[in-house]
Amino acid sequence: MRVIAVLRSISLIWIILPALAILILVIPLPTLGSKPTDRVYRVDAGRFAYSPAVLRANLGDRVTIELVSTDVVHGLEIDGYGLGITADPGQPAAMTFLADRSGTFRMRCSVTCGAMHPFMIGKLQVGQNVWLWRGAGLALLAVVAGLWKAWQ
Ligand SMILES: [Cu+2]
Rounded to the nearest whole angstrom, what is the distance from the C-alpha of residue 94 to the centroid of ligand 1? Predict the structure, then answer.
């Protein structure tokens, strides 16, 4: 009988909230109704930056990157995908790949092109920023819990 009394004293909400928190952390997010598409990006590479520096794709997209050098020889490698191309000035290079890994991947120049070469970076973002949404969900849950406690 003592157990029941203890359970009664703990409001059900303090069991539901942690359960919801766990759910928010592990539930797979829907891919907002986006069908895989072909994406073509023309990336201009010049000392010491890419333009655009951030490329976005959804999981399952076929991505083509056309690298155009505007001054000296530049490369573009995508860490985590193990892909890379190099482009001579006036001779664009292209690569096509399937965005089959979600996350944020660093793109970097693979040809030593000058003093600031190590800083010639960009990023490829595949899929939604899952942790941003999970974080927002947890924050919302914390607000609900706070309101609940204040209301009690
Ligand atoms: Cu470089």
Answer: 17
